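User: ok so my PI wants both of these folded by tonight, can you help

Assistant: No problem, let's get them done. Here's the first:
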Amino acid sequence: MTSSATKVVPFPARKPPGRVVAIASGKGGVGKTFIAVSLARALAEQGERVLLVDGDLGLSNVDIQLGVQPDLTLAHVMDGEATLAEAVMRIAGGAASPGGFDLLPGSHGIASFADLGERDVQRIAAGISALSFSYDRVIVDLAAGIGHAMLKLAADADDVLIVALDEPASLTDGYAFVKLLKSRRPTARVGVLANRVKNKKESDRIHQSFVRACGSYLGFEPGCAGAIHEDQAVKTALRAQMLLSRHAPTSTALGDIETVTHLVKSGAAFETRVAA
């Protein structure tokens, strides 16, 4: 009597979580939210399923830049009125549509959400981690500054993009953020994006400032995530509450965003080196 061969059915491969990229700055007003929104759009255009999270827990403005009015936000989630998944809204058709992405809106003008305790921040971080299994990339637009909530969310991210201007305060505060981030997570992958530059000399000055400071005092050199040139089209797109790609598809800044997107997608933006 012969026995039939046993057919082995493999378990389906589990999808790995999408990479989480935190967009940070030590100082406000550097264009961080514009970068986060533009990066989400560009990655979606390249076929990635993207979730954009407004991580400014007290003064969110991603929805304002996009010209949308969310029914549910992180405030509803923290109050137990909705789950994170229920609060996610679709932008341009959502992550399942070509060029669209999903948005998890933040909260507006709620003082208690600007100073959440450690347990609440951990809840948000865990929720973002859980949602990442449904996406290829999660972009978290953090509030400016070095608050414990922002440092926690940055430390939990796979990659951290520091947005900086060619200004002393921006450079100093950006370095302070990196220093505190590294004290929490020494292995954090950090890239520096120079924004609103007039020329290559300015972008080089921003990157070299971080390389020198981080190399001398923190023992590593952050990656270079490229630069975005000063462009009037960005200002008019923000006033119109439109994506730059739709408002000014031939603008210089949009071309720069495409370059930055390539560096982020390939991981080259966060290639750090041990300082010599």
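One down. Here's the second:
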Amino acid sequence: MDSWIVWLILAAALGIAEIFTLTAALGLLSIAALLTAGVALIGFPPGLQLAVFVIASAAGLLGVRPIARRHITQPPLQRFGVSALVGKAAYVTKEVTGREGRVRIGGEEWSARAYDETLVIPAGSAVDVIQIEGATALVYPRE
């Protein structure tokens, strides 16, 4: 069997394995094997074929893979607007019950209700914002 066929079979096997693993590494090795199959088809000796495979593999894994991984990873989602207030600490300015109250969140005063309707949170307490409903913050006392 000619060596270019062996390299072609190796390239196909690595390509199929890449489909199942999705690591990008096996795909780059598959491309290196395909390049080596072309070199073998031209008629270069096995030692040079192996050198081409090693150099192409190293170039792919060290050069292309970090760039691909950088593009694949997404930055963490940034919350903005009222959804950014969820989880923040607040200060009760007027007693908060299950129906009404006022809190200060980051310098702004908001209408508030207790997340648990049976709670009464006195003025001066620290609370956490659990949810925002319209213009009302649902809060729970800090522990």
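Helices lie at 3-21, 25-42, 46-72. The mean pLDDT is 90. Good luck tonight!
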